[in-house]
Amino acid sequence: xxxxxxxxxxxxxxxxxxxxxxxxxxxxxxxxxxxxxxxxxxxxxxxxxxxxxxxxxxxxxxxxxxxxxxxxxxxxxxxxxxxxxxxxxxxxxxxxxxxxxxxxxxxxxxxxxxxxxxxxxxxxxxxxxxxxxxxxxxxxxxxxxxxxxxxxxxxxxxxxxxxx
Length: 164
What we know:
Elements lengths: L1 H24 L4 H9 L9 H22 L10 H12 L1 H12 L2 H14 L22 H21 L1
């Protein structure tokens, strides 16, 4: 009986992972690639191949965040390459909010947000769910914090190796 429950849990986790990967596959990051390659003021100015690689790694990071970081205290730190893509994604704030909701909000959250958007639209209030926060000070607040960042980065590398 216990093994059956473990198998069912694994089945639903994989089903959930599969559904997330499907959403991730339709995530349009071409505007972010354009910004990384074409905008000299972005501070990046990458070649197209590097931008495409960065976006691919960013999508892997989004999966790890979904699987391990979204509903837990587990922190998976992104690589520098991924962090640069993530920053450019955040700068397109409307797209970033919409993309986060599409990826991370559950169906009930999406339905509630849709209703609340209609209700609050006349007031100019924007409602979104599933927002992926970014804390830019991690690793900068002392020696212990720097060690925590290194551990989170090492964990990310291990999880990338496990899943990709």
